[in-house]
């Protein structure tokens, strides 16, 4: 990803939902003025969610999401419907497209109920306005108990109502939230922050991973100085700095060595811990990691990642963390893994969930996963916090956050 691009996780996610051939793809294309999705008269043309990052004025950076029809049939169709419902977990604004030539179905009603239950801002869009029977618009409004701001009739074919729909989406999707920082609020101008970035077989060739990019940018915004080194050069770099750095921020996998090489009077933390605070789950993750001490033989731990990538021979999620868990607990622990959009609805079989930093997940999806775990009484932590805990350096690693430090 270019450092000049807004990360997908920081963009407003707009989802288009509805039955097959209701015109979801056509409406989305009309709103964006681009052919983002394939349009066809054949039912089920969209077989998987389609994501497109773009600029949509007046919102700015967004992710447009086209989904399979919620009335798909058969075993494969059922999997597609499930995929559509999963997209809701990351949707900041939902557009429910109803076929104006057909009217409302049970699937439309069930989906709108789910959207409302999740508290997602929405607009019901009746497409094919030119084919709509007299009185249908009023009928739909009364059936779903919609006010004027929640429903709009449009024609993707002629463009009628599309401009109004675009404005309506912008209105429901734009939220004013307190500004959040990764590390900027912890630094003063001219402070030095040393970033430890291992370069090994798992590192992306020619680029830094997203949390590292975002941290460097946040340090620059603070007017501070970032020094980037590999773990093997850290000790030498610290000795050559003219003044003591304010903090050292490390990749979690190098935590143990970096802790040894960083003097105790320098603050130490990790990209993963900073990301947990940024996503709003640092306290929950610190409390959750203590569940490691209660694990017994045969217990199952879920290791979940928000992205998909090529697994290396010593992969962090499938190899290193399972090994560290078994070494720390001395127990025969069962490990299950998920990645990307897959996250189990039923978590009750797990004694602990260890999640990645979630840098590729937007805030809504990360909160959804956290609330699922919390609602089902399953402790949840993240990679960096778990690694720091089993290495005996968690308390030191959260010293920069006094309110969290005092929990330990």
How would you characterize the overall build of this protein?
This protein has helices at residues 24-32, 74-87, 106-117, 136-144, 162-173, 210-221, 234-240, 255-261, 271-279, 282-288, 316-329, 363-375, 383-390, 394-397, 402-405; strands at 12-18, 50-56, 60-66, 93-99, 122-127, 151-153, 192-196, 225-229, 247-250, 267-270, 300-304, 334-338, 352-355, 380-382. It is elongated, with a radius of gyration of 24 Å. The protein is built from 15 helices and 14 strands. Strand 2 (50-56) and strand 3 form a beta hairpin. It has a six-stranded mixed β-sheet, sandwiched between helices. The protein has 408 residues and is an alpha/beta fold. Helix content is 35%, strand content 18%. The chain folds into three domains: 8-173, 3-Layer(aba) Sandwich (Rossmann fold), CATH 3.40.50.300; 185-275, Rossmann fold (3-Layer(aba) Sandwich); 280-390, 3-Layer(aba) Sandwich (Rossmann fold). The model has no long low-confidence stretch (mean pLDDT 87).
Strand order of the largest sheet: 2-3-1-4-5-6
**Rg, please?**
24 Å
Name the CATH superfamily assignment of the largest domain. Answer: P-loop containing nucleotide triphosphate hydrolases
Instruction: Give the termini separation.
Output: 37 Å
Structural class: alpha/beta
Furnish the topology, listing elements before pairings.
Elements: E1 12-18, H1 24-32, E2 50-56, E3 60-66, H2 74-87, E4 93-99, H3 106-117, E5 122-127, H4 136-144, E6 151-153, H5 162-173, E7 192-196, H6 210-221, E8 225-229, H7 234-240, E9 247-250, H8 255-261, E10 267-270, H9 271-279, H10 282-288, E11 300-304, H11 316-329, E12 334-338, E13 352-355, H12 363-375, E14 380-382, H13 383-390, H14 394-397, H15 402-405
Parallel strand pairs: 1-3, 1-4, 4-5, 5-6, 7-8, 7-9, 9-10, 11-12, 11-13, 13-14
Antiparallel strand pairs: 2-3
Helix pairs in contact: 1-5
């Amino acid at each position: 990803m270019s450092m000049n691009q807004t990360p997908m996780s920081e963009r407003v996610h707009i989802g288009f939902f509805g039955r097959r051939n209701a015109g979801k793809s056509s409406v989305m294309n009309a709103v964006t003025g681009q052919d983002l999705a394939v349009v066809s008269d054949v039912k089920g043309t969209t077989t998987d969610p389609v994501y497109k990052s773009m600029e949509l004025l007046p919102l700015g950076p967004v992710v447009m999401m086209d989904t399979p029809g919620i009335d798909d049939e058969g075993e494969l169709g059922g999997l597609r419907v499930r995929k559509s419902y999963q997209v809701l977990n990351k949707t900041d604004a939902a557009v429910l497209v109803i076929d104006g030539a057909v009217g409302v179905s049970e699937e439309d009603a069930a989906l709108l109920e789910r959207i409302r239950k999740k508290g997602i801002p929405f607009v019901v869009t009746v497409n094919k306005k030119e084919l709509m029977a007299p009185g249908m618009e009023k009928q739909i409004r009364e059936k779903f108990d919609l006010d004027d701001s929640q429903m709009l009739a449009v024609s993707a074919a002629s463009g009628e109502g599309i401009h109004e729909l675009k404005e309506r989406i912008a209105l429901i999707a734009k939220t004013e939230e307190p500004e959040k920082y990764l590390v900027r609020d912890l630094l003063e101008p001219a402070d030095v922050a040393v970033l430890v970035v291992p370069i090994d077989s798992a590192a992306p060739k020619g680029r830094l991973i997203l949390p590292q990019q975002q941290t460097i940018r946040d340090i620059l915004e603070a007017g501070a100085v970032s020094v980037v080194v590999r773990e093997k050069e850290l000790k030498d770099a610290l000795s050559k700095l003219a003044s003591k750095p304010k903090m050292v921020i490390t990749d979690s996998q190098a935590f143990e060595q970096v802790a040894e090489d960083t003097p105790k009077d320098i603050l130490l933390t990790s990209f993963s811990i900073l990301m947990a605070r940024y996503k709003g789950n640092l306290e929950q993750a610190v409390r959750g990691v203590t569940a490691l001490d209660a694990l017994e033989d045969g217990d199952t731990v879920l290791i979940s990642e928000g992205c998909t990538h090529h697994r290396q021979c010593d992969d962090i999620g499938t190899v290193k963390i399972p090994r560290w868990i078994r070494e720390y607990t001395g127990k025969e622990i069962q490990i299950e893994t998920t990645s990307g959009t897959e996250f189990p609805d039923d978590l009750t079989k797990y004694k602990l969930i260890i999640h990645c930093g979630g840098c590729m997940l937007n805030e809504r999806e990360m909160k959804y996963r956290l609330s699922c775990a919390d609602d089902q009484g399953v402790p949840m932590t993240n990679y960096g916090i778990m690694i720091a805990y089993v290495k005996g350096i968690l308390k030191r690693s959260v010293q920069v956050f006094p309110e969290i430090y005092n929990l330990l």
